[in-house]
Amino acid sequence: MSNNNKQDKHPFYEETLETKPIFEGRIISLQVDTVRLPNGETATREIVRHPGAVAVVALVDNKMLVVEQFRKPLEKAQVEIPAGKLDAGEEPEAAAIRELEEETGYRARSIVHLQSFSTSPGFADEIVHIYFTDDLEQGEVHLDDEEFLTCEAITLEQAQEYIKAGRICDAKTVLAVYAWQLRTLTGSFLK
C-alpha cells in the first residue's frame, strides 16, 4: 500500500502545512511545523532534526568497553557505551566501527547489528543504531579535539552497580547492559 494517498495514511496522521526553521547547528536543527490534526484543527510541533547515531556493545574478555565523559545537559559525568553521530552519507555499520576505535582504541574485525531505536519520538527524529562485537583487535584512540573521556572495561556486575548509582543512565547504555545480561543468561540477545 502506498503512503502517497490520504486514505492510505494512518488515521492519526498529521499533515504538515508549514515548516519554519528556527536553528541550524553543527549537530542538530530545530524547526516548528504547523500541522493539520485528524479532526481538522491545526497545531504546532517543535521538531529536532538529528543525523542519527551509532553505539557499540563491545566485549573484551567478557567485560564491556565503556567511556566516561562529562555531559553538559546533565551537568555530570556519565559512563556510556562507545557512541557517536553519523557523518553525512555514512553507513551506520562503518560509523560504529569508526566510533569504537576513535573512543576506545579497539578495532572491530566483525560487527553485528542488534537494534535501531528512536530516542525521543515526541520531539526528535534521531535514530540510534546499536551494534555488537566481541571480535576485536588493538587499534588506536583518535579523540575529536573537543572530546575528553576515559575508557575502561567493566563486568556485568559493575555495569549493574553503575546503573543503580546513576553513573549509567542513558537509554542506549541501559539497553546495552540489559541485552548483555540477556545474552549471558540465555546465550542470545533475543529470546
Automatic annotation (TrEMBL):
Cofactor(s) annotated in UniProt: Mg(2+)
Keywords from the named record: Hydrolase
Keyword Hydrolase carried by entry: yes
Any one GO BP annotation for this protein: nucleoside phosphate metabolic process
InterPro entries xref list: Nudix_hydrolase (IPR020476), NUDIX_hydrolase-like_dom_sf (IPR015797), NUDIX_hydrolase_CS (IPR020084), NUDIX_hydrolase_dom (IPR000086)
Name of one Pfam family that matches: NUDIX
A GO cellular component annotation in the UniProt record: cytosol
PROSITE patterns tied to this protein: NUDIX, NUDIX_BOX
Keyword Hydrolase: yes
Nudix hydrolase domain location: 48-176
Family per similarity comment: Belongs to the Nudix hydrolase family.
Protein name, as recorded: ADP-ribose diphosphatase
The species this protein was found in: Cohnella abietis
Gene responsible for this protein: nudF
